[in-house]
C-alpha cells in the first residue's frame, strides 16, 4: 500500500456523515442505503454520494439481496490502514540499524544466497524477513507490476514464486490490488531488527 492510498483512505473519512456511516455499519447488521438515509436524516442521493467515496477507498463493500443493496464495513482494510499509520508514527522512534544488526543481516544473506540465487526460503521469521526484504529492494518502488511480471522477477531468485509473492503481501513489503503489485514504503515493512 503506497502512501497515497493511506492519504486517500483518510480523506474518505473527512466528512462526519461518512464516519457516522462506518460507525453504524460496524455496530449493527449491514444496512441498506434507505435505512442509512433514515438513520442519518439525509436524502438517499446524499448516501449514494458518501457510499461512492467510501467504496472508492475500500472501506465499504456491498451485497445484493433480491432488489436491495446492503452495505458492509471492510474491516480488513480498516485494520490495514490503521496499522500502516501506526507504522509511520512509530518509525521515527526506532533506530533499528546498528552495527550488530547490519552484521547479522550480511551473515544471513551470505548463508541463504548463492550469488543471486536463493538456496532455500528460511523458516525462521527473522531470517525470512531479511531475505524477502533483500529481494524486494531489487524492485523499482515507483513501478506497478502485473502478477506475471512479478513472478518472472521472483523466479530469477527462486523457483517458488507463488510462496514468495504471498510472503511479500503478508509482511507488508508489497501491496496488491486487482492483480497489480506495488512496493510499499520501507517504513511499512515488518521490522526484523526488533525480533529476537
From TrEMBL:
PROSITE patterns: HTH_ARSR_2. InterPro entries: ArsR-like_HTH, DUF2087, HTH_ArsR_DNA-bd_dom, HTH_MetalResp_TranReg, WH-like_DNA-bd_sf, WH_DNA-bd_sf. Signal peptide: none annotated. The keyword Endoplasmic reticulum does not apply. One of its GO terms (molecular function) is DNA binding. Keywords: DNA-binding, Transcription, Transcription regulation. SUPFAM superfamilies: Winged helix' DNA-binding domain. It holds the Pfam family HTH_20. The keyword Transcription regulation applies. This is HTH arsR-type domain-containing protein.
Amino acid at each position: 500500500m503506497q502512501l497515497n492510498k493511506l492519504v486517500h483512505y483518510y480523506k474518505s473519512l473527512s466528512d462526519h456523515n461518512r464516519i457516522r456511516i462506518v460507525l453504524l455499519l460496524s455496530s449493527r447488521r449491514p444496512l441498506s442505503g434507505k435505512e442509512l438515509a433514515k438513520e442519518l436524516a439525509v436524502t438517499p442521493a446524499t448516501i449514494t454520494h458518501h457510499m461512492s467515496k467510501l467504496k472508492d477507498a475500500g472501506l465499504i463493500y456491498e451485497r445484493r439481496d433480491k432488489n436491495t443493496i446492503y452495505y458492509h464495513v471492510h474491516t480488513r482494510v480498516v485494520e490495514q490502514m490503521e496499522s500502516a499509520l501506526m507504522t509511520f508514527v512509530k518509525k521515527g522512534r526506532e533506530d533499528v540499524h546498528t552495527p550488530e544488526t547490519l552484521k547479522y543481516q550480511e551473515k544471513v544473506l551470505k548463508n541463504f544466497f548463492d550469488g543471486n540465487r536463493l538456496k532455500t526460503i528460511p523458516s525462521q521469521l527473522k531470517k525470512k524477513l531479511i531475505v524477502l526484504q533483500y529481494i524486494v529492494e531489487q524492485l523499482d518502488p515507483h513501478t506497478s507490476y502485473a502478477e506475471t511480471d512479478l513472478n518472472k522477477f521472483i523466479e530469477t531468485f527462486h523457483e517458488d514464486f507463488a510462496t514468495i509473492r504471498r510472503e511479500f503481501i503478508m509482511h507488508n513489503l508489497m501491496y496488491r490490488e486487482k492483480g497489480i503489485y506495488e512496493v510499499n514504503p520501507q517504513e511499512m515493512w515488518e521490522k526484523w531488527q526488533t525480533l529476537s
